[in-house]
Amino acid sequence: MDKTFQNIELSFLKIEDYQELKEAMISAYSSMPDAYWREHHIQSLLNKFPEGQIVVKVNGEIAGCALSIMVKSRGFKEQHTFRQITGNYTFNTHSSSGDLLYGIEVFIKEEFRGMRIGRRMYDYRKDLCERLNLKGIVFGGRIPNYYKYADQFSPKEYIEKVRLKEVHDPVLNFQISNDFHPVSILKGYLEGDAASNEFAVLLRWDNIYYEAPSKSAAITKTVVRLGIVQWQMRSYNGLQELLLNAEYFIDALSGYKSDFALFPEFFNAPLMAEFNHLSEPEAIRKLAEFTPDIVEEFSHLAVAYNINIIAGSMPEVVDDKLYNVGYLCKRDGKIDRYEKLHATPDEKKVWAMNGGTKLQTFDTDCGKIGILICYDVEFPELPRLLADEGMDILFVPFLTDTQNGYSRVRHCAQARAIENECYVAIAGSVGNLPNVHNMDIQYAQSMVFTPCDFQFPTNGIKAEATPNTEMIVIADVDLDLLTELHNVGSVKNLKDRRTDIFSLKKN
């Protein structure tokens, strides 16, 4: 081919293009005489759905064309013929309120094949589908090489052979490579298609960004702003002074329009200073007496500052047993409770702390979240169970005294982001508490982790605090990027799991 291709343009089809379009179709379907649309057909499509009709021109010459209608999924029948889906070629089946894009036609002139023109047209259809908030794209795909194998394989067997690349089919191979998946076999689909023995494959591409119409006025955000408090341990003159300091950070994060404020594990530990004359188990039980008042105040602040507050963790006594728990105080006034499931050896030995039993995700106005306290993030089964429930963001309030303890939390949290295809935010405390037993020193570097793929930072770190310095970290995370990763990522950790050889479930 000696042509020099200087200009490739995708544009809307116009009725003025018809004569050239006709000649291009006759050329593309040389094996199927009279397989071209008449002018009144094209005019009808342009009247009903102009956005769905496109051409690609190379140096001003029509090289390919794609025609579409919209249909309603509720009345859509998988088993149909081309004549039926087009309303006997009248296109009366088109519905302006449809939620599926149906591909009527795609062709490329032979001399322009191999230039990825088909991919351009399918990318346009996908973009149109997303822009119109349609569920997906469907169409009957020809299998033009089937006639060579009809005496050897059924259509179903032929499709499987093509999928396994044991047989080549130029049309079906192309559709599969463009993320369309076979749904069913259509018998007698296109009259006169001898090469396909009049069989076709119903193919579908799902719009992962589709949002079903809602009757609720509530809006779930897709770009979420995370606010992390890297908390300085210091002496306080009572609960009210500590709460004033907490409100300062909440106010600051709210001022930057953060959707969440994440506090560290045991951020209220400085209040144990007045009980330092008691044994460690007695002192932390006295600290637990502050928990109800802190939760009540944080819930008030969440509503007042219009921010969801993850109140780190605090000790709580239930039926005379000591637990490490936290509260999610939502900006709509609702409160959820979460528990640390794995008490550390030190927590058990020094404080007689018990592990909790409740593991769950939480629905928020910014998607579904999970919360695991410190040591829990080092057990990969827990975040995986939350991921199976649809978790988008995992929050990890933590407290570590040494750098090696911090490294365990940090590296495990980053691994959880990659393997569960989610965002992970960790928040810790810094500084010293010389007047509180078992809480002498703290080390932290709070961070926001992402998966590692083209949509995200190459090192998987969205934002990070300065180590061992009191500060806040603010980062925006895009939940739509997670949806994209789940479906078209370089790797798909969740989808590629070998559930045929292992499984994970809650008791």
Broad shape: elongated
Mean pLDDT: 93
Beta content comes to 15-25%
Number of strands: 22
The low-confidence parts are none
Tags for this entry?
507 residues, alpha+beta, nine-stranded mixed β-sheet, seven-stranded mixed β-sheet, 13 helices
Question: Could you describe the 3D structure shown?
Answer:
This protein has 507 residues and is α+β, with helices and mostly antiparallel strands. Helix content is 27%, strand content 25%. It is built from 13 helices and 22 strands. The chain has helices spanning 18-28, 39-48, 82-85, 117-131, 155-163, 170-177, 239-255, 280-287, 291-304, 345-351, 381-388, 403-419, 479-488, and strands spanning 8-12, 54-58, 61-71, 100-108, 136-142, 181-186, 200-206, 223-233, 260-262, 308-310, 314-318, 321-329, 335-339, 361-364, 367-371, 393-397, 423-427, 429-432, 441-442, 447-449, 461-464, 471-478. The strands form three sheets. Strands 8, 9, 10, 11, 12, 13, 18, 19 and 22 form a nine-stranded mixed β-sheet that branches. A seven-stranded mixed β-sheet has the order 1-2-3-4-5-7-6. α7 runs parallel beside α9. The protein is elongated and about 95 Å long. The model has no long low-confidence stretch (mean pLDDT 93).
